[in-house]
Each structure stands twice: as C-alpha cells, then as structure tokens.
C-alpha cells in the first residue's frame, strides 16, 4: 500500500509523482481532499514584491496588441 499526491484535472486523476505500477493493472484508489489553508499573511508579505520588475505599460500594450492580432485572424 502506498499513499501519493495527485491532482484531479479535466475529469482525470493525475499522479504528481512517478508510480511503479504495471500498465493495465487494476488498482484501488481512496480519495481524501486536502483542505485549502488560506493565509492572509502570505498575501500581505508578497504585496509590492513585483514592483519595478516589469514594465506594466508595455505589458498592457502587448496584451492589447495580442488581442487585436488574434481577432484579425
């Protein structure tokens, strides 16, 4: 018996680590949701960390340019 972490995405369970299981072998899966722990302090600590690392005006300009390009295709 082994416990692994996995993620449920697009209707499938995707292991987050390598499994040593023979292809096609039938297995039993027990699902236990991991509770989300929202920590307001982590948001406060990260506030302003990106300031000065990116040209926001250029980013916005590129986003709008990409939208125009995809709309004209």
Count of DSSP H/I helices:
2
* pLDDT averaged over residues: 83
> Could you give the count of β-strands?
2
Query: What Rg is obtained from the alpha carbons, in whole angstroms?
Result: 22 Å
What is the strand arrangement across the widest sheet?
1-2
- How would you sum up the major sheet? 2 strands, antiparallel
Proportion of beta-strand residues: 5-15%
- Helix-residue proportion: 25-40%
- Structural class, from secondary structure content? alpha+beta
The 3D shape can be described as elongated
How far is the first residue's CA from the last residue's CA? 53 Å
Elements, N to C (H/E): EEHH
**Are there runs of 5+ residues with pLDDT below 50, and where?**
none
Keywords:
single chain, 73 residues, alpha+beta, two-stranded antiparallel sheet, 2 helices, 32% helix, elongated
Task: Give structural notes.
A two-stranded antiparallel ribbon has the order 1-2. The chain has a domain at 1-33. It is elongated, with a radius of gyration of 22 Å. The chain has two helices and two strands; from the N terminus they run ββαα. Helix content is 32%, strand content 11%. The protein starts with 5 loop residues before the first strand and ends with a helix. It has 73 residues and is α+β, with helices and mostly antiparallel strands. The longest helix has 16 residues, at 56-71.
């Amino acid at each position: 018996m082994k416990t692994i972490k996995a993620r449920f995405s697009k209707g499938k369970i995707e292991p987050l680590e390598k499994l040593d299981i023979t292809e096609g072998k039938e297995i039993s899966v027990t699902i236990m949701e991991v509770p989300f722990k929202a920590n307001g302090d982590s948001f406060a600590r990260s506030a302003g960390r990106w300031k000065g690392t990116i040209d926001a005006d250029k980013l916005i300009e590129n986003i709008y340019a990409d939208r125009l390009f995809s709309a004209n295709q």
